[in-house]
Design a protein that fits this description.
single chain, mainly beta, Immunoglobulin-like, 4 domains, six-stranded mixed beta sheet, 5 helices, disordered N terminus
């Protein structure tokens, strides 16, 4: 539902037309693309009746957001850390575009302009209820520049290609190894965005609309998948002086500036609404969207600005900010939070933790990948070198710092790209501050444990070697999977006396299968607070249903096959309660549970069987699913049932 970039609303558009446009907008999204950025045509109305900004004249005015404009979150994914792959459709793409766009994306994805998207985190309740994807939007990277040799529109002669053909070619180029496969974030969401630029000879069609007649550009999502992922992409026709787009896709007479402006429009919309192209209505998988005014760029269409990034100036389109209620090129941004002790001993190191936070929704910004620089009021301080956060930090990193000058001193952390991302901590040096605590071991690795079970506890010892008591303010779990570990017992109270120690016993209690990790974190008055012990463990299934597939021999319609058996096995050392055994699926009525030894529960480390028969009601392949519910993990368990009627 990306609308035109640098376009203008027709005068006196009625509310009826706006309602019609929303209907068209939904229809356009089901075709695998966002509604295109439009240049306008009286004969072909786009999803929202907008018109281009004419060649820059006194009448050329950018869109002004109406009252009530607001992007709602509908539950779909965003792009955590965009990885822009720039694609040129043959080497006949405008040479200046080929030179400019890779530099533009490298600069703009690591800029104050891109930081404005950080307010659109998805750790909020979607409109209509439910749960979202719990993502944040951090800065991005570039994944390279590629000139492809497509199977069509490849010889420089005039030709037309439809969006369906572009999707097919994009997937073919990825499958063929000519374009890199999409990168994923830590939760398996797509990060890569393929931005495709076309030469002058190529006309692009989308749902019957033509490039440089109705739209300037669009972004979309492939309806087909690569490795079970829909691919995000943008489409950009030539905008040079010989193109019909020239002067109609921006308010700047320099077509390269209009090209970067249009590109920033689609970049921001892709990042905040990546799966718009496969949305069938105004609901998930839409992410941030205004049902009246469209996406983040549509609301501010044609409002251009100049930003500095990567040592150069770039023309971009302003984007809508919910929190500021306006179109901005410099908006909200991540916020730093510093955790440091209140006091320190001169010459003794202590820990300081920098955590990036979402600017509006709160919480740790796990996708933050900026670089932090430290300064201090203590001219003799020993400070860390500049540090670039990476995905494994999940938005938080602990540093070692030494202050050497007595008195009240400050330590300040500042992002090297956006100086507004900053925070300070004040530490009293040399006036009775306690020293560090010793926490050992520094890491605990738990044995493989069944999901839903609890491992034997392991011990962490906390030792106070100081001559003063240490006050403990909190002990808990942080990191990726804090809910999968528990404190089974602790002798550490709110204070650890001088020259004393205490113990914390930690157990692994995984809630799901796979590798799980967290950290036991103590916050206290010691100079090295907070202290952390890394925790790791792997969880396996607690119950199994075998075999995974149960094939039956060809059976005459109406007759019953020989029975086949499925086995439910309890791998736990405690009994498992069964919640039901059933056959579901397309042809569930053709398969029958003939008998079972499975009652209401299955004893520890034991199994039961389920006998099934096949009685086809029609010829041909018949399929269903055996499903067993239990209070163990995973649930439900399934086996595929298959047979052929003859």
């Amino acid at each position: 539902m990306s609308r035109s970039h640098n376009c203008k609303a027709r005068s006196a558009v009625s509310k009826v037309l706006f309602a019609l446009c929303i209907t068209l907008l939904i229809a356009c999204s089901s075709a695998g693309t966002a509604a295109a950025q439009k240049t306008g045509s009286p004969a072909v109305q786009p999803a929202r009746p907008l018109h281009i900004v004419p060649m820059v004249t006194a009448k050329g005015k950018a869109i002004q957001p109406p009252l009530g404009t607001h992007l709602n979150y509908y539950g779909g994914p965003v792009i955590s850390n965009v990885n822009v792959v720039t694609v040129f459709w043959t080497n006949k793409v405008d040479s200046k575009v080929q030179t400019t766009l890779p530099e533009f994306y490298s600069a703009i994805t690591d800029s104050t302009f891109y930081d404005l998207l950080s307010e659109y985190a998805t750790n909020v309740t979607p409109k209509g209820g439910g749960s979202g994807t719990n993502q944040s939007i951090g800065r991005g990277t570039t994944g390279g520049t590629f000139t492809i040799a497509p199977s069509t529109c490849n010889n420089g002669t005039k030709c037309t290609i439809d969006d369906t053909g572009i999707q097919t070619e994009l997937l073919a180029q990825i499958n063929g190894g000519f374009l890199p496969p999409p990168e994923l974030d830590n939760d398996g969401n797509v990060n890569t965005l393929y931005m495709i630029y076309f030469p002058l000879n190529v006309t692009i069609t989308l749902q019957g609309s033509k490039s440089c007649v109705v739209f300037c550009a669009y972004h979309g999502t492939t309806t087909s998948q690569f490795n079970s992922k829909n691919i995000a992409y943008g489409v950009f026709p030539d905008m040079g002086p010989s193109s019909s787009c020239f002067g109609g896709c921006g308010s700047d007479p320099d077509y390269l500036k209009d090209t970067t402006s249009v590109s920033s429009h689609e970049l921001a919309e892709s990042a905040t609404d990546i799966e718009v192209g496969i949305a069938n209505n105004i609901a998930a998988p839409l992410a941030w969207y205004d049902p009246v005014n469209g996406e983040i760029g549509d609301i501010c269409n044609a409002q251009q600005a100049t930003v500095t990034a990567g040592g150069a100036s770039w023309t971009v389109q302003k984007q809508w900010s919910n929190s500021l209620g306006s179109c901005v090129a410099l908006g909200q941004h991540p916020a730093y939070q510093l955790a440091a002790p209140g006091s320190a001993t001169p010459g003794s190191s202590f820990n300081l933790t920098v955590t990036a936070q979402n600017p509006t929704s709160g919480g740790t910004m796990a996708s933050y990948i900026g670089t932090v620089h430290f300064t201090s009021s203590d001219g003799a301080a020993v400070l860390p070198s500049d540090y670039a956060f990476n995905n494994s930090d999940q938005g938080s990193h602990t540093f070692s710092i030494t202050l050497n000058t007595n008195g009240s001193q400050s330590v300040t952390a500042t992002d090297t790209v956006n100086s507004a991302v900053t925070a300070s901590a004040t530490i009293t040096v040399g006036t009775g501050g306690s020293g560090p605590l010793t926490v050992s071991p520094s890491s605990l690795a738990f044995p493989t444990t069944k999901a839903g079970a609890t491992s034997a506890a392991k011990t962490v010892t906390v030792k106070n070697t100081n001559t003063a008591a240490i006050t403990v303010s909190s002990v808990g779990f942080t990191g990726a999977n804090p809910g999968d570990f528990l404190i089974s017992s602790s002798t550490c109270g709110s204070s650890i006396p001088a020259s004393a120690s205490c113990q914390i016993k930690v157990a692994f209690a995984p809630s799901t299968t796979g590798a799980r990790s967290a950290a036991l974190t103590l916050t206290d008055s010691a100079t090295n607070s907070p202290q952390s012990v890394s925790l790791t463990g792997t969880a396996t299934v607690a119950v199994k249903l075998t075999p995974a597939t149960i094939p039956f021999a060809k059976t005459v319609v109406g007759q019953t096959s020989v029975a086949k058996t499925a086995t439910f096995k309890n791998l736990l050392k405690t009994s498992v309660t069964l919640g039901g055994i059933s056959v579901t699926g397309t042809n569930a009525g053709d398969f029958t549970i003939a008998s079972t030894t499975c009652g209401g529960s299955v004893a520890a480390l034991s199994s039961c069987t389920i006998s099934l028969t096949f009685t086809p009601s029609a010829t041909g392949v018949r399929n269903a699913t055996l499903q067993v519910l239990s209070n163990a993990i995973p649930s439900p368990l399934t086996s595929a049932l298959a047979g052929t009627g003859k």
